[in-house]
Design a protein that fits this description.
166 residues, alpha+beta, 6-stranded mixed β-sheet, 6 strands, 23% helix, globular
């Protein structure tokens, strides 16, 4: 399935408005792009949101910890069906923290609700590629001579299986 050009244009437009919102530090403008039932993950262990107000809180925290932020997208793939679209892309954030500029490369996947007059993010997932995993390999290096990534298990996550209807 391939989203038609109109859907792709609408999704790219909302991505650009998200980037513009971060650059302008426009919290209300960014929130206007979100579905009330928004859910998602950021790159930090504590960055899980359920609902637009929780997202607002994390957004306020993010913007309070930087002087400037600009987002750039590449390799944007868009698809969709009916009133739903989804995307995956590479991202680059240029962030100024205490006067020092840094570049962060990450990935974004999202699900968007297509309404007649608007497009809203219903799900967002920002992720960082695994440290120590080289191109062509499926897992981080196990070579003892190379630094190994630290992998920790979050205590709030369990290994119990989900049983629907239980």
């Amino acid at each position: 399935m391939t989203a038609d050009e109109k859907v792709r244009e609408r999704v790219i437009d909302v991505l650009n408005r998200l980037s513009e919102g971060y650059s302008k530090r426009d919290i209300d403008g960014i929130i206007a792009l979100m579905d009330l039932g928004l859910m998602g993950f950021g790159t930090g262990a504590d960055e899980r949101v359920s609902g637009v107000e929780e997202f607002r809180s994390r957004l306020e925290r993010d913007l309070s910890q930087c002087d400037e932020m600009s987002l750039y997208y590449s390799n944007v793939d868009v698809d969709g069906e009916g009133a739903v679209a989804w995307l995956a892309c590479d991202c680059r954030a240029v962030v100024v923290v205490r006067g020092i500029s840094q570049e962060i490369k990450f990935r974004l996947t999202a699900v968007l609700r297509l309404e007649k007059v608007s497009v809203r993010f219903a799900q967002l997932h920002f992720s960082l590629p695994a440290e120590g995993q080289v191109d062509g390999e499926s897992f981080p290096s196990m070579d003892a001579s190379k630094p190994r990534p630290t992998i920790s298990v979050r205590p709030d996550l369990t290994s119990e299986r989900f049983t629907p209807g239980a």
